[in-house]
Amino acid sequence: MNTHHPLSWRRWMRLLIPLLACLSAALEASPLSARMSSQFLVEGEQATLEYVISDGLNPRAQLKLTPVDGLEIRSVGLGAEPRIAFGRRREYVFRFMVTSYTPGNYTIPAARLIDDAGEILGPEVKVRVFKETELQWSTAQAGGRSVRYAAGFHTIDDTPFVKEVIPTELKLYIPTDQRVEDWGIPEFQRDGVAAWRFEPRPSLGRANLLGRSYYAVSYPSTLSPTRSGMVTLGPAKLRLITVQTSVQNFNAAFYEPLNVVIPELNLASQPLPAGAPEGFEDAVGDFELSVTTSDSEVREGDPVNVNLVVSGAGNLDTLNAPKPIDTEGWKLYPASSVQRDDRRDITGFAAFRQFMRPLIPQNQIPPFRLVFFNPETETYRTILSPAIPLKVLPSTAAPSMAPSVPMALPMPIEEMTDILGLTRAGMPLLPETRMENVSRYWQIIPAILALILLFRIAQLHLFPKLKPDPERVARRKAIKELEKAPAEELGFYRTAGHFVEEWLGNSNDELVKDVLTKRDQTCFTGDADSAPVPRSERQRIVRGLRRLMLPLIVVIAGTTADLRADDEVAAEPAPEVTAPEMTAQEAYDSNSFKLAARLWLESGPYERLSPDTLYNIGNAAYRLGSPGEAALYWRRALTRDSSHPEARQNLRFLERKFGSITIKRPDYQYTLAKIPLAGWKSAIWAGGWIIVLSLLVFPATRPMARMRIAAISGLVAAPILIGAGVVGHHFYPDDARFAALEEQAVVTADRASIRTDAARNAPLVLEAPAGSLCRVLKETGDWVYIAFTNETRGWIAADQVKMLIPEAQPEPPTPPSSTSSDESKSA
Fold it and tell me: Which of 152, 129, 149 is nearest to 139 (CA)?
């Protein structure tokens, strides 16, 4: 018998169809794409231009290019060539060779693909040709041999606008007689710009420079200024692995590094013009908007799935979803985005899925608005999509006289596109005296209650059985009578002599003999004097007789002077620390993330930095474009406060975004982490105390007392509380179970190469993304042997990984090198 719900497949189709519609609409937006091996050419350099179409191609289709003065464009091959792309997709490629001997900026007009079905236009392609004299030449050593090379960063525009994305390339020219095994990844600095990872293209160009043949290696990427004014990309370092031959060893080949230095590139970033229209959300580029829906008819109360596709060229990765101009009568849910394939491409599309629920009868889906700044025309532009007719049908649900219980919706999944903001509350530093066991102080209360119950038990059952010693009572009475003896000598010594004869008759103490002698002289010689006994003498005799009569009781008590001294030490105020929140906050708000991180880190010793301060340093590192450093400091915040919600959520977002190798946890463990680990331990202690107190209640109370009912309830509830605490403590997401905190480390490079041995030319094990958690097993020179949470082991360069618990005051995060990941761009 089939037990599946009859509407389950429909529910899946309702979720799948909008996503497919987004992808199909995006593909329709740009069916013909262009790829060029390099957009920056020196005079005489050749580059490959490819036009790619993914759809089925008509064999008679022709690609037409408009000639460009100053550029030589010639076809290579016999028309369209089929090939298999990523994901086993078939595509067709038209290849052309581009060269020029005239410096300048060129634009290749849109190509036209003509077949029986009509004409398809491709994108424009921009090319910059520069003079050979503009190259900056340098010399490096490899295997005792001098290698002359030229390298530099190149952009189409030297005065971009803030948030504008422009193509950027690192060009390297190196002699063709120098064999290179590994072209490396550049490590560069940046100030005021966000740039993606620079990776070498697999195809090498050629150019004749200085009378020699040179390889032209292109490292393409994109660049976007984050602030106005002078911004800088570079300087950069690039480590190539060359192959050298040894004449002494019969031309045996060996590897030698070649360290290349790339000078910095300075740009004058322009601020966006004032007077931005309503709805502008930092969209910079030239875009088109397509809005579609698969729901032209919906039932009352059902949501409408709207597919939004923004196509064109610009900052597609940071775009926010367009919003409807009229939201009255609609409930909008947060829009979700579709991840782009190659985020370094300036052109393409950004697809979004928007869920809307009509709250009142509607006859159309309102137009959506996209406001952007076009850097080509230097103007703002607003695009409105047409309204989409909508028919809302009555609900088919049976009417009910009583209010119905709404259907439980699934918990929404986090769809974060950026990290959470700073935490502005709390102290920047921990107290001078660390209160690591403050969570146990509450146990003083049940301990006092237990003492009270124990005293009550003793009062009811023990004290009645204790009878006072008659002899001891009589002795105390005799001492009191001695203390009340008359002041004159006759009466005092008569009482003292009687006391000695009754209680200390067998004593040979000198004081006893003196008292009896004095008594005999005073009372029996007839020379009695009515003068009083000196006070000091009286006290000496009384104290001495009491000492002889009663046993010595030693009372141990702490001196009040020591207690007061301890209180004064404990109450001594900690030295006032000037919190740098305001200065660091202002630096952060002004996009000076490196300065903000340094100010937070220098606000006090690292051991006293609060979890919020470490969290803020992680945010600054992320904004710097260093996700590995960000993950490191968020994890350090969690070592101070295991339930820090912002740090845990940002870390979860970063690991999901970059694919970091970390401990895979089920969702319920993140729910358990909302309560600190100390809270689950306290639950176990609380359950134990409840059992102890409940058991003490019975002997401390009389039968039928109301407290016994509460004690029975406590005995029932305490095991449940203990069980919950044990389960929460056992399944708590504690990274220390993977390895001790002192052994844990985090990969800080954006993408680190893990190798089988401590050598750059050793075989590759895997590429570890930024933020990956690992355990340090061994250190050898500049290499570290590590183990990841998935049991993978290998060697990593020491400068690409940092310990979770630093041995000294750590250095502030810095803008990452491009050995970092594809995601090193600042959000």
Answer: 149
